[in-house]
Design goal:
Distance between the termini of chain A: 51 Å
Helix content of chain A: 10-25%
CATH superfamily of the largest domain in chain A: Chorismate lyase-like
CATH architecture of the largest domain in chain A: 3-Layer(aba) Sandwich
CATH class of the largest domain in chain A: Alpha Beta
Oligomer: homodimer
Shape of chain A: elongated
Strand content of chain A: 25-35%
Structural class of chain A: alpha+beta
Number of helices of chain A: 6
Chain lengths: 244, 244
Amino acid sequence: MCALRVVESEPGQSRYAALAAAMRARIVAGEWPPGCAIPAEQTLASEHGVALGTMRRALDLLAEQGLVERIHGRGTFVRQGLGGAPMLRFFRFGASGPDAPKSRILARERVAAPAEIARALACGPGEQALRLKRLRSVGGQPALHEEIWLPLPLFSALAEGDPGGWGDLLYPVFAERCGVHVHRAVDTIGFGSLGVAPARALRLPAGHPCARVQRQAFDLAGRCVEWRTTLGDANAFHYTVSIT
Amino acid sequence: MCALRVVESEPGQSRYAALAAAMRARIVAGEWPPGCAIPAEQTLASEHGVALGTMRRALDLLAEQGLVERIHGRGTFVRQGLGGAPMLRFFRFGASGPDAPKSRILARERVAAPAEIARALACGPGEQALRLKRLRSVGGQPALHEEIWLPLPLFSALAEGDPGGWGDLLYPVFAERCGVHVHRAVDTIGFGSLGVAPARALRLPAGHPCARVQRQAFDLAGRCVEWRTTLGDANAFHYTVSIT
DNA sequence: AAGTGGTCTAGACCACTCT
DNA sequence: GAGTGGTCTAGACCACTTG
């Protein structure tokens, strides 16, 4: 057997970077699923025939990139997907505690994805997708209106059954029912005005100014697994960025 | 003379963290001004009586925090302040290249700072401050309207003379004329509608929807040295955030 | 060629967590 | 107490920049 798992690095790349890339590949391939503990530093170091410090740097790199989480005294773990990517960090609604907003599915359809969305979702143009419309309420008041596109057949488990049992957060549902772990999301913020349908759902006049958050969510392998557009009252929008 | 500069760490703090804090203090105190090279790792390590690796971790920490910049083969340098904190990353105006927007000062007054601003600026309430109004144009079109508060007497050099010679970016002016280096800024994004004066300056109707970016800027020591409110057409706003 | 930061090693010891 | 990650050391060698 090959006891030593040697990693060759491209020229110009450091050994710890090459090790990190190799570990990353093993994680993405599913050798250690999310939440799982990976072997101890010392074990990995001797497995690859490198010094402990070098393997530590590799693991530190993966931790910086958010791929693993290191816990002193316990071990190194593959990170779980995002729990609920808190859309509420973009909005401030009156008297909202830290609770997740209540969620209600308004519509669910299988449709062919339009070109723009098919391109973003990394599925062929015209391929089938699942389109959800969803209303989220805070303190009993409608607050956010969402249109969500999910590629099929990856999410076919969500095309059937009662959406009422899904709960208020979507990403845990993705993980449990579809085995999809959302690892990274990119949100693009803009301002616009409400169309007729979202306005009615939000109990605001059509044309009312709104904030639009367009999200693409990605799994560990970097595939785009969700395309979402969230609308909310522009006056409830606020967001803080620190730059250095 | 005391050849060894020993750093005692609080219990529970690692030695490199204590070293980093000590170095930070020397930088903030002005021992090495912005842009200046600090002594070599080896020099600092023996100066403090620690191993090279330990001093490296301390310097790496400062680099992460944005306090210093490490350049392979050249040295470690105290970071210059922010050049122009590009307000344009929040807006997209037609046909705008990467050039800084043209700047024109509309008004400049010494006034007593209102309570809210005095609190933010870390100067006593009712203390004198400099208030600027400024119009920034992209491609010849007015694009952003700014109200800027600066504490006096720190910025008294800007209270006199012709603002026409300041150029299009403010932070280099702060550095050259007032010795103030902006090191960090916090921007809060909100939404509203234009008042009469900003609307006229921007050639938009009063009440037009606008994005509001409220900025607090800080120097190395963490003092708030600027309070700014920027307004621009809400339809030109866009911003992208990545979450992990 | 001299000086800088970047990588890698090999090993000791400490701090934390679980059983 | 056994196993984990975190800190620290001492030294070798490499890669990059400058004179």
